[in-house]
């Protein structure tokens, strides 16, 4: 890890200090003291990007293939530049345009990991920073709920429809007109949980030099799954447990900082 990466972790107040998803605290620590143009790839509804846009020191842009997510984020932050991505298509940005890019639990959803990482390398300026998080392969990987739609499609449909309604299930998992099945790109049939060596190999193949490798959580899937199915005080209690698990353990999620060298 170089001194610049370390310095960024000392800058700014940590707005994600108690957030159950530790990847947001990791990304904030890496980016809060930086300047320049930042791209959040796979920004979703902006859980991280909106906070970085409002309280960070970088100039933010967001991009995602999901039109509904982008519409929701645009309604809340009309001044935030957003671009819709085509699944599997080149990024619609010029070479060396950004000083930093975040990919927060996105790589495991795309149809071609090397293609996306290579495109990310292209749009980063020399010396630019990539903030990357993915689920890590570990003893409880079999609990990954994002694979339920592939492993147990009928059960997944029943539970999801019970929790969110049959129309929402249809819009997210049956209507593939946006080339997405839920948050997964059409053409990908697993939600990958990566070994550390495998992820670092992908990054180096795409031209990146990893500088920091860490992680979070161990038992969180045992809490995340019931949290997805409930709400109110029960969900808040489960999320506090997820947060504590993320502070105590480092096995279930993989967090990496990497540089595009000149």
String of helices and strands: HHEHEHEEHEHHHEEHEHHE
Widest sheet, order of strands: 3-2-1-4-5-9-8
Give the C-level CATH assignment: Alpha Beta
Q: Shape from CA axes?
A: globular
CATH topology: Rossmann fold
Number of separate strands: 9
Describe this structure in words.
With 262 residues, this protein is of the alpha/beta class. It has one domain: Rossmann fold (3-Layer(aba) Sandwich). It is built from 11 helices and 9 strands. The protein has helices spanning 3-8, 22-31, 49-55, 67-76, 113-123, 148-151, 153-164, 166-174, 196-205, 220-228, 232-248; strands spanning 37-41, 59-64, 82-84, 98-104, 124-135, 180-181, 184-185, 208-216, 253-260. The protein has a 7-stranded mixed β-sheet with strand order 3-2-1-4-5-9-8, sandwiched between helices. A two-stranded antiparallel ribbon has the order 6-7. α5 links the parallel β4 (98-104) and β5 (124-135). The radius of gyration is 18 Å and the shape is globular. 38% of the residues are buried. The model is unreliable at 1-11 (pLDDT under 50). One of its GO terms (biological process) is methylation.
Chart the SSEs and their pairings.
Layout: H1 3-8, H2 22-31, E1 37-41, H3 49-55, E2 59-64, H4 67-76, E3 82-84, E4 98-104, H5 113-123, E5 124-135, H6 148-151, H7 153-164, H8 166-174, E6 180-181, E7 184-185, H9 196-205, E8 208-216, H10 220-228, H11 232-248, E9 253-260
Helix pairs in contact: 7-8, 10-11
Question: Features of this protein?
Answer:
262 residues; alpha/beta; Rossmann fold; seven-stranded mixed sheet; two-stranded antiparallel ribbon; 21% strand; globular; disordered N terminus; Methyltransferase domain-containing protein
């Amino acid at each position: 890890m170089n001194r610049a990466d370390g310095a960024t972790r000392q800058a700014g107040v940590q707005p994600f200090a108690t957030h159950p998803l530790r990847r947001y605290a990791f990304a904030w620590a890496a980016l809060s003291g930086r300047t320049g143009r930042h791209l959040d790839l796979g920004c979703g509804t902006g859980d991280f990007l909106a906070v970085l846009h409002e309280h960070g020191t970088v100039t933010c842009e967001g991009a995602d293939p999901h039109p509904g997510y982008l519409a929701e984020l645009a309604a809340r932050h009309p001044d935030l530049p957003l671009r819709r991505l085509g699944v599997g298509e080149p990024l619609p940005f010029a070479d060396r345009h950004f000083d930093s890019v975040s990919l927060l639990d996105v790589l495991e959803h795309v149809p071609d990991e090397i293609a996306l990482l290579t495109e990310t390398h292209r749009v980063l300026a020399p010396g630019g920073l990539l903030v990357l998080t993915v689920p890590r392969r570990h003893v409880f990987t079999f609990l990954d709920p994002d694979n339920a739609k592939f492993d147990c499609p009928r059960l997944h449909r029943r539970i999801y429809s019970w929790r969110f309604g049959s129309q929402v299930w249809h819009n997210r998992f049956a209507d593939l007109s946006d080339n997405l099945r839920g948050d997964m790109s059409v053409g990908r049939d697993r939600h990958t949980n990566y070994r550390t060596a495998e992820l670092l190999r992908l990054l180096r193949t795409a031209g990146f030099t990893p500088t920091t490798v860490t992680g979070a959580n161990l038992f969180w899937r045992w809490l995340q799954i019931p949290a997805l199915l409930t709400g109110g005080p029960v969900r808040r209690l489960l999320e506090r447990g997820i947060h504590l698990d993320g502070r105590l353990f480092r096995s279930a999620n993989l967090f990496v900082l990497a540089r595009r060298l000149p």
